[in-house]
RNA sequence: GUCCGCGUAGCUCAGCUGGAUAGAGCAAUGCCCUUCUAAGGCAAAGGCCGCAGGUUCAAAUCCUGCCGCGGACACCA
């Protein structure tokens, strides 16, 4: 249980007691609905972090809410509530402030015991059982293969992997799935293009490059000749219906693509899937869903013999589930996949980490699924903003693509340059450059609210300043450096300590500790990694501030020294654990 | 046209289950390495939170309308 939860539960009891007392005295209000609404308002009791430190560690606005319902002065109610809070070791003091805020100050003892927990649990600190072992499937990355990964694939891959990590940390049983796009008309296009313009030797030499070239060439040509799209569709249909030559080509393309994509995942590091089940996996399972849907009249005949799902909402266009030529589409495979996952894993939720251009599509998909008896609203679209370039859309079709590999390479290169500048004597420069470079790319994405669009910009993407991975890693390295030295040297304090400043900086840092678990839970609840990254950044800022004005190794009093060392260790542990969830590795020196 | 998302400091963005004086980074100004990593810290500066209404004790946050940007809207995924 987090400290916030404890405060909440203490407050809940106090509010209940207050309401009871009032109910007895003001019998009038009891009969009315007001009492009922007061109760429901109470259940919405929220605890927040005050923006100003002088307002304590946690604050509640419940008295103001009740004040309105009970027609009483909020401050009076607050006073009554506070009276009903029993003495306990968690809370140092409670204050009533402003129009009726109840501010809680956490006792130092409670904070120190939280610190002790960190030192004991180490890498496990932060884990909770919010999820109660319930199963959540997280689908992410899911690239369309036969083309290399572009920068835009970072979003789903990084956000999805991090959500998977975070959900796991708060006690969900997660199943991560890479739903590879290895099926569909795109392969018809590729097969057509290969047959027409491709050369075996060239493709064998540089498979991915050549596939991308063929893909782009197809779209160039298709603009001049509209028949090409139909021909590609035919190739796909033939393939789907058993054409041997096309099947062989497909297998070849898929094999080479996967090899290449896995290389990139490896470079990104920390990208792990419990299952890589491409669309092709559902090839023999689609008939079943199609038949079921047709039988139940969920799928009805549309134009020219296609099958569609219709919606009551006029603004939602129908979803095509089977093409007029009888071939399947992404929707067919997604519906099949949905049924398969529900049947196999019985998840509480299935998260689709996919960009928001597909908002409408997922709405259609889930809306249709609701009509099947096996669907219990498991699907959830974790949408995120799109990545685009300054002046044009990223489009693989047109070849406007920035390769993910090249971004990672550049990131490492830039990190290396700065290392040469700032720490020319560092031993393992290349290893550090890699961790810093890759980390900064990931952190950059995770520190942003996922619904915000991202305009790709080299400098921004690879920023090594401010709220960035290197800042976090640097903070960690500083902390670790202190801890290393603590073992050997025992220096004497030389200068006078500024007591006031020290107390303030120490207290601020100490008080930031319990929020880690709390923000982790918030992050999981809203599927927002940036809540976690923002917390870690704030913690790092507080540590750096502490670092600058509070001597640790040279503390005058040995007791202070010990406490500050423990605090430093606690903070470094949180940074390590938190960054690990974000997929950012820490470094001991940089 | 309809629907979805966004509009916050010069720039890039946090904050949005309503709450106290709207926060960071970059850029620009000044200061701090004879104490633990200056990839750092401190100070000051920078805001009609797109516009106009509404709800509320309280609105950047909720509702309505408008403007601007992005996206989606039947056989691509």
Order of strands across the main sheet: 7-6-5-11-12
The average pLDDT is 90
Number of strands: 14
Percentage of residues assigned to helices: 55-70%
Tally the structural domains.
3
Radius of gyration: 29 Å
Number of helices: 23
CATH topology of the largest domain: Rossmann fold
CATH H-level superfamily title of the largest domain: HUPs
As a percent range, the share of strand residues is: 5-15%
CATH architecture of the largest domain: 3-Layer(aba) Sandwich
Supply the helix-strand structural class: alpha/beta
Question: In angstroms, what separates the terminal alpha carbons?
Answer: 36 Å
Largest sheet: 5 strands, parallel
> CATH class of the largest domain, anyone?
Alpha Beta
Gross morphology is globular
- Low-pLDDT runs: 24-43
Quick structural summary:
This protein has 590 residues and is of the alpha/beta class. It has 23 helices and 14 strands. The protein has three domains: 3-106, Gyrase A, domain 2, CATH 3.30.1360; 135-389, HUPs (Rossmann fold); 426-581, Isoleucyl-tRNA Synthetase, Domain 1 (Orthogonal Bundle), CATH 1.10.730.10.
Overview of the molecule:
The structure is a single chain. With 590 residues, the protein is of the alpha/beta class. The protein folds into 3 domains: 3-106, 2-Layer Sandwich (Gyrase A, domain 2), CATH 3.30.1360; 135-389, 3-Layer(aba) Sandwich (Rossmann fold); 426-581, Isoleucyl-tRNA Synthetase, Domain 1 (Orthogonal Bundle). 57% of the residues lie in helices and 10% in strands. The chain is built from 23 helices and 14 strands. Strand 5, helix 7 and strand 6 form a beta-alpha-beta unit. Helix 7 crosses helix 21 (515-526) and helix 16 (404-422) packs across helix 17 (429-446). It is globular. It binds one RNA strand of 77 nucleotides through helix 4, helix 8, strand 10, helix 14 and helix 15.
């Amino acid at each position: 249980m987090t400290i916030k939860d404890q405060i909440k539960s203490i407050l809940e009891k106090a509010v209940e007691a207050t309401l009871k007392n009032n109910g007895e005295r003001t019998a009038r209000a009891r009969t009315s609905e007001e009492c009922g609404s007061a109760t429901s308002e109470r259940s919405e009791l929220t605890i927040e972090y005050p923006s100003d430190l002088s307002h304590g560690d946690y604050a509640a606005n419940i008295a103001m809410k009740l004040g309105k319902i009970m027609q009483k002065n909020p401050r009076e109610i607050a006073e009554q509530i506070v009276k009903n809070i029993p003495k306990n070791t968690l809370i140092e003091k409670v204050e009533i402030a402003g129009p009726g805020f109840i501010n809680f100050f956490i006792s130092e003892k409670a904070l120190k015991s939280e610190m002790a927990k960190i030192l004991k649990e180490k890498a496990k600190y932060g884990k909770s059982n919010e999820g109660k072992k319930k199963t959540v499937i997280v689908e992410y990355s899911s690239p369309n293969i036969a083309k290399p990964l572009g920068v835009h694939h970072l979003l789903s891959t990084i956000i999805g992997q991090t959500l998977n990590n975070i959900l796991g940390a708060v006690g969900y049983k997660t199943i991560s799935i890479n739903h590879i796009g290895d099926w569909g008309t795109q392969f018809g296009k590729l097969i057509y293009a290969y047959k027409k313009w491709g050369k075996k030797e060239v493709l064998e030499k540089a498979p991915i490059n050549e596939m991308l070239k063929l893909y782009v060439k197809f779209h160039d040509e298709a603009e001049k000749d509209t028949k090409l799209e139909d021909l590609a569709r035919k190739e796909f249909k033939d393939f789907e219906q058993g054409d041997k030559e096309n099947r062989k080509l497909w297998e070849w393309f898929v094999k080479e693509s996967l090899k290449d994509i896995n290389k990139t995942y490896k470079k990104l590091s920390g990208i792990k899937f419990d299952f890589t089940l491409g669309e092709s996996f559902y090839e023999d399972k689609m008939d079943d869903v199609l038949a079921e849907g047709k039988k139940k009249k969920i799928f009805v005949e549309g134009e020219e013999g296609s099958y569609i799902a219709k919606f009551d909402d006029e603004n939602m266009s129908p979803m095509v589930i089977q093409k007029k030529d009888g071939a399947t589409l992404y929707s067919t495979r997604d519906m099949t996949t949905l049924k398969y996952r529900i049947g196999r894993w019985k998840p509480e939720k299935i998260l689709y980490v996919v960009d928001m251009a597909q908002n409408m599509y997922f709405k259609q998909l889930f809306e249709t699924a609701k009509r099947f008896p096996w669907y219990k609203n498991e699907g959830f679209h974790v949408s995120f903003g799109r990545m685009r370039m300054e002046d044009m859309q990223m489009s693989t079709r047109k070849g406007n693509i920035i390769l993910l590999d090249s971004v990672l390479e550049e990131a490492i290169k830039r990190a290396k340059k700065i290392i040469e500048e700032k720490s020319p004597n560092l031993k393992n420069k290349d290893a550090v450059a890699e961790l810093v470079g890759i980390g900064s790319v990931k952190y950059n994405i995770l520190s942003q609210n996922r619904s915000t669009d991202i305009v790709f910009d080299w400098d921004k993407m690879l920023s090594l300043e401010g709220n960035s991975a290197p800042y976090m890693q640097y903070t960690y390295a500083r902390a670790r450096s202190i801890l290393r030295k603590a073992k050997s040297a025992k220096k004497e304090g030389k200068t006078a300590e500024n007591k006031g400043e020290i107390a303030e900086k120490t207290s601020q840092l100490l008080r930031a500790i319990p929020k880690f678990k709390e923000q982790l839970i918030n992050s999981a609840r809203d599927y927002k990694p940036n809540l976690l990254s923002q917390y870690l950044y704030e913690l790092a800022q507080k540590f750096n501030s502490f670092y600058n004005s509070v001597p640790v190794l040279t503390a005058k009093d040995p007791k202070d020294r010990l406490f500050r060392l423990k605090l430093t260790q606690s903070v470094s542990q949180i940074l390590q654990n938190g960054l690990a969830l974000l997929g950012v590795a820490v470094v001991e020196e940089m």
